[in-house]
Write a structure and sequence with these properties.
Helices cover 51% and strands 20% of the residues. Strands 1, 2, 3, 4, 5, 11 and 12 form a seven-stranded mixed sheet that branches. Strands 6-13-14 form a three-stranded mixed sheet. The longest helix is centred in the N-terminal third of the chain and has 30 residues. The protein starts with a helix and ends in a 6-residue tail after the last helix.
Length: 387
């Protein structure tokens, strides 16, 4: 019992040292610019990337996306042909048609082509046109299509760097807020799923990049009415219209899909929608409050082991602690992966990783502090400090 109390006291002391080190590093990070690259590097690391990669290694384990289909308009440059293709789509009863392209009021385009495209879009009940919030120095501007006044509009802005999240309601860039592209699609096409996401209250949701088969239709083939009717299943589905050949709209994602780490932005929207609509794809993230509690429990357990090892194995305690540290990290990853894949719950190990990573250093620092005169003076006043 005496040893237990001593180890627990030392564990708590080590935990306080770890918290102090973290606060110091946080203060320095705000003060010293050279720490910014470190912060960016930490942002690029996520356990969920490894979980998704592992899940996608399973051969043949691929979902079929029933709710969303992709119409590729690559190679179709005439606005008159695009209008014709959209007209074909609308006649087959899609749930929503969302155009992930922005058409400016191009003076080089024939006015007849512009009018045709505008008239077709105005007749499609749930047509969503892309908007983009663009930073211009200290100000922002909205880039949108010339027909924006005859349809719904929503922002296609997604995260820079690695795209891990989608926005279920709105997107804010530079103080300007617009409805999000995925959120607007869900609101019009899947109101029950949209309400469920709103009830969750999250500003962003983790995209589930588990492999799935997404139907990709070629708009050029749609211009052959007979072939289109015989081949393509459009009814009661969300139809995303985009250009798969536009390399400017390729983004880095959290795992590898179809042998690539960079995929088309419209396909990212398809995975975002399927995350919300398809069973067993929506992911629940551990809240920050529970993550702190979870991290404190794991860190305290590791600290207790360190305190025991320092006393029980005086000559080899360093090696034992290093191996135990590795075991804790691997154990956290294994438990997190099993929980993520089987229950779609993402355990937040941010604070636990920091605590375990600093555990050995903090233990030595605490034992040094115990040997100093101020601590010994306090121990005389409060005997429990020397238990």
């Amino acid at each position: 019992m005496v040893k237990f109390c001593r180890y627990m006291r030392q564990s708590v002391g080590t935990l306080l040292v770890t918290i102090g080190v973290c606060i110091l590093v946080a203060v320095l990070a705000f003060s010293w610019a050279f720490l910014n690259p470190i912060a960016r590097a930490l942002d690029a690391i996520a356990f969920t990337d490894n979980y998704l990669y592992t899940e996608n290694l399973k051969e043949g384990d691929m979902d079929y996306c029933m709710d969303v289909a992709f119409v590729n308009m690559a190679g179709v440059h005439s606005r008159l042909e695009i209008a014709e293709g959209l007209d074909y789509i609308s006649k087959l009863g899609p749930k929503v048609v969302a155009m992930d392209c922005i058409f400016s009021h191009n003076i080089s385009s024939d006015s007849l082509e512009n009018d045709s495209l505008r008239n077709v879009i105005s007749r499609i009940p749930n047509f969503i046109s892309a908007q983009r919030i663009v930073k211009m120095g200290d100000t922002v501007a909205v880039e949108e299509s010339f027909y924006h006044d005859v349809c719904y509009n929503a922002s296609v802005n997604i995260d820079e760097g690695i795209v891990r999240y989608f926005y279920p309601d709105s997107v804010t860039v530079g103080g300007l807020t617009l409805p999000s592209f995925v959120g607007e699609i869900l609101r019009l096409g899947f109101p029950d799923k949209y309400k469920m996401l709103q009830d969750r209250g999250n500003d962003e949701e983790l995209i589930n990049y588990k492999k799935m088969q997404v139907d990709v239709f070629d708009m050029r083939k749609m211009l052959d009415m007979e072939l289109f009717l015989d081949t393509f299943d459009i009814q009661d589905r969300v139809i995303l219209v985009g250009d798969m050949d536009d390399l400017r709209d390729y983004h880095t994602i959290a795992t590898e899909l179809y042998g690539m780490r960079r995929i088309n932005g419209t396909l990212i929207h398809a995975y975002s929608i399927a995350t919300a609509t398809k069973d067993n794809r929506l992911i629940t993230n551990m809240s920050d409050g529970w993550a702190i509690i979870w991290g404190l429990i794991i860190t305290l357990a590791f600290n207790y082991f360190c305190c025991w090892a320092y006393e029980a194995y005086e000559k080899t305690n360093g090696m034992i602690i290093n191996f135990t540290q590795l075991g804790f990290l691997l154990g956290m990853m294994l438990l997190g992966g099993l929980t993520f894949i089987n229950f779609r719950y993402n355990l937040n190990y941010t604070y636990a990783m920091i605590g375990v990573g600093l555990g050995g250093f903090s233990s030595e620092l605490w034992l040094w502090l115990e040997s100093l005169a101020p601590y010994q003076w306090l121990a005389k006043k409060w005997p429990w400090l020397n238990m």
